[in-house]
Amino acid sequence: MKILVVGNGGREHALAWKLLQSPQVEQVFVAPGNGGTAIMEKCQNVPLAVDDFAGIGNFAQENSISLVVVGPEVPLALGITDALQSQNIPVFGPSKAGAQIEASKAWAKALMEEAGIPTAKSATFTDAEAAKAYVTQQGAPIVVKADGLAAGKGVIVAQTVEEAQTAITAIFKEGIGKSITQSPVPNPQSPIPNPQSPIPNPQSPVTVVIEECLIGEEASVLALTDGVTIRPLIPAQDHKRIGEGDTGPNTGGMGAYAPAPLVTPSLMERIEREVLERAIATLKKRQIDYRGVLYAGLMISPQSELKVLEFNCRFGDPETQAVLPLLETPLEELMLACVEQRLSEMPPIRWKSGACVCVVMSSAGYPGDYPKGKEITGISQAESTGAVVFHAGTKFDQTLVTDGGRVLGVTAVGENINSAKALAYTAVDKIQFAGAYYRRDIGDKAIA
User: Does the keyword tRNA processing apply (predicted)?
Assistant: First the structure.
């Protein structure tokens, strides 16, 4: 079978890499792909933007694509699944209606309340002054969230009331709390514009969600669902802050490991029962047929109290890079079972023993402004150690160069977190590009 993966990050490189391990997959195309997918055997980049639904649909038809796998949240929120399904193209990823669970934090909070899913106390505002008054009343620390998609960076954990109010001012001024466009599902014959970021809807009010600040450790549980049955993957832990010791601003993720020992078997049972199953049941009650990944970002308190921080409508990045190397069940079998709504018929998901650690190498300045075009060397030496280097912000420009904030995800499997971490950092040390930055504490929480 031939599969088309939509996206250009480390997550999409990891998906293509895992799909190609199956003898049933003869070729993977990636639109638009990156420097890593460009050189992978049986993989080919396609110069199509992630929201060029007409181009993606035509390519899938002309190349007999058996399955389209959507990586990023933006095309899902814009309705790529609806557009391709209208052409009878099988798609792994929820509809535009389902993708609201990530595209609007306010929508997700309302769904959690309806479903009885444990989550932080919150309030939603479309008026900056009302939001600031609420923050003054509640005190700090407090969490300010822009409602729309913000590539993992629209959340501010404010330690003071002043910091929270500054964040609210910035969100309303910059409009990052706006939902993305709510235009009708694009006609496959009429391509919509191809931006590199979500399209703000000028008619949508800027919205912020203000939440109580929860104390504990975060964990990520990615689950596969066909809209009726849900199967969690092994739990992972992301490292969102730029600085070691979880300091500095949020990023898209600076590294991850799996499995996360924080999520014990008994806790995973609760997550399935109290979070995942309730979410799918409530989506179904709302007549939303949700097929794809449901990702729950969780906060686990020192007393093992469980609360949902957020839901995402797609594979996590970099959690996917840490989870997929441990997966033994062919990935395309699981995805097709979701698309064809027969996940309940699948045997239990099989996993390799051991652990996996992914360390993200980023450009200097990320998550703020950063340079591009810096030559990257040492990847073959890094992979000679046994690690896998997933490309994210890279491209070929005569040589391999940086082309994004998060550049590479250096990933290694070991008998335990200790050995996986040691191998990952051995590989990291062999890679060079000007201004390369990475955290050296990925996995330390699990080891502790």
Answer: no
**pLDDT, tens only, 300-339:** 998 889 999 999 999 999 999 999 999 999 999 999 999 9
As a whole number of angstroms, the distance between CA 254 and CA 75 comes to: 23
Chain CA centroid to CA 119, Å: 20
Which two tokens mark 308?
Answer: 């949902």
Strand extents, DSSP E, 176-238: 208-212, 217-225, 230-232, 237-238
Helix (H, G, I), strand (E, B) or coil at 155: strand
Q: In this structure, are residues 391 and 10 in contact, taking their beta carbons and an 8 Å threshold? A: yes
Question: What would the pLDDT profile of 60-69 be if each residue is shown by its tens digit?
Answer: 999 999 999 9
120, 181 contact by CB (below 8 A): no
- Which residue is listed with tokens 């535009």? 96
> How far is Cα 19 from Cα 7, in angstroms, rounded to an integer?
15
Phi, psi of 431 (to 5 degrees): -105, 135
Is 368 strand, coil or helix? coil
Question: Token pair of 128, please?
Answer: 């900056």
> What is the pTM for the complete model shown?
0.92
For residues 389 and 427, what is the distance between their CA atoms, to the nearest angstrom?
A: 9
What DSSP state is assigned to residue 254?
Answer: S
Distances 52 to 84, 167, 403 between C-alpha atoms, Å: 11, 33, 21
Q: Backbone dihedral region of 200: left (phi > 0), alpha (psi from -120 to 50 degrees) or beta? A: beta
98, β-bridge pairs:
none
